[in-house]
Design brief:
The chain is mainly α. The chain has helices spanning about 5-10, 10-15, 20-45, 55-60, 65-85, 90-105, 115-130, 135-140, 150, 155-160, 170-185, 200-210, 225-240, 245, 250-255, 255-265, 270-280, 285-300, 310-325, 335-345, 355-375. It is elongated, with a radius of gyration of 27 Å.
């Protein structure tokens, strides 16, 4: 079984890989369903709030567009990266948390659940998934005006949105493996594919003859300079993976290997092409297809939004956030209250809870237990006489 076969068995490939068309269609469907839910919620107000509603109220709801939803979710992904960096958590926690947030909002809308309320839970869940567990109380202390209930209440909701799949395949390990292979070439110990007939030293000489790195006018003249070049390309590619790859749709559209190779292509194209030449035969039909995909991915990574929004972008985000405050689903705003209600009666969660018969059985058992606890001397002993 090849590595590609193994990846195809992963939940990331089976559940979270899309074409650009299916991804756009999924977001449009989610947006339309959320907008309908918001308008229905205002049309049929909660009990005791009859003054809100009617056709006029429905007409007045100005819902977010698909693009506005993408911008607000992207902003909170950026906030997630900043928060994890502030807490000095590992890179894999940061990357997983960002992907949890992006995955959740493929089938859920900010109009239904505000990203500000889901973001802390996504980070907390990522910490547990990446074996970097902290007690929820100590985690909540890092966030102003956030309680442990605020973090735990959306946890089951988030796991539902993730389809109970917590594994995220990141491109970081692939980059580190490629980095070590490139360094092996500089030491005269590297090997290409079985079709490569050159010795390790000859491959090192070929590596010395590749085109100059970005910003340089001359080729590398010594092994020491070559090592420094590889290190610089690695650092630049890693930074791309820690920012652009997490803020774009790269994880939904490309494999981890394609993502890290594209990041290396952006950092040092001649070096990346040399590495690919040692892995894929020149006459292979797959090679031009691979290069086309890598260029498309590299273009996406290079078009990523900047780390900090400028003045105009901040103004746009404020406008969207203000608009979001006016078109949130009023029935889904109290996540803590919803979580408590679900615990009391799972069947009242709009069909997302337990089966009705199971819920009814548990409710009767709970009522019987409460009735027995009220008896000072406990329940009556069963009569076991024949």
């Amino acid at each position: 079984m090849t590595e590609d076969d193994i990846y195809r068995t992963s939940t990331q490939y089976r559940l979270w890989s899309f074409t650009p068309e299916t991804l756009a269609s999924l977001r449009a469907t989610t947006n339309a369903a959320a907008a309908k839910g918001v308008k229905d919620a205002y049309y049929t107000p909660p009990l005791g709030n009859e003054q809100v509603g009617g056709d006029a109220a429905v007409a007045d709801v100005d819902c977010l567009t698909v693009e506005e939803e993408r911008k607000i979710v992207g902003y909170y992904c950026l906030r997630t990266l900043d928060f994890v960096d502030f807490c000095e958590y590992p890179t894999n926690v940061k990357a997983t948390a960002a992907q949890y947030l992006k995955r959740f909002y493929l089938t859920n809308s900010p109009m239904t659940y505000h990203p500000k309320e889901i973001m802390p839970t996504a980070v907390y869940l990522a910490m547990k998934s990446e074996d970097n567990f902290h007690y929820v109380k100590s985690f909540a202390e890092k966030l102003p005006n956030i309680t442990t209930e605020d973090i735990l209440a959306p946890e089951f909701l988030l796991t539902q949105g993730l389809r109970f799949t917590f594994d995220v395949r990141h491109p970081f390990h692939g980059l580190e493996g490629g980095f070590m292979e490139l360094l092996a070439f500089t030491n005269g110990k590297g090997h290409g594919g079985p079709w490569v007939k050159k010795s390790s030293k000859e491959l090192r000489d070929d590596m010395m003859d590749i085109g100059p790195p970005p910003g340089a006018s001359s080729r590398t003249s010594s092994v020491k300079e070559l090592v420094a070049r590889i290190q610089k390309a690695h650092d630049k590619a890693k930074e791309t993976l820690k920012t652009s790859a997490l803020l774009t749709d790269a994880y939904f559209l490309y494999t981890p290997s394609q993502i890290w190779l594209s990041a290396l292509l952006l950092a040092d194209e001649p070096l990346a092409r040399f590495y690919i030449d040692t892995k894929v035969p020149a006459m292979s039909e797959m090679k031009p297809k691979l290069l086309t995909v890598l260029k498309q991915c590299a273009e996406m990574l290079s078009s990523s939004p900047i780390a900090q929004p400028d003045k105009e972008e901040k103004k746009e985000l404020k406008r969207i956030d203000k608009k979001l405050a006016q078109c949130r689903n009023p029935q889904k705003m109290d996540l803590v209250g919803m979580n408590k209600a679900r615990k009391r009666d799972p069947a009242q969660d709009g069909g997302d809870g337990l089966d009705e018969k199971i819920a009814k059985k548990r409710r009767l058992e709970r009522e019987r237990s409460m009735k027995e606890s009220e008896d000072l001397f406990g329940p009556a002993l069963p009569d076991k006489r024949p």
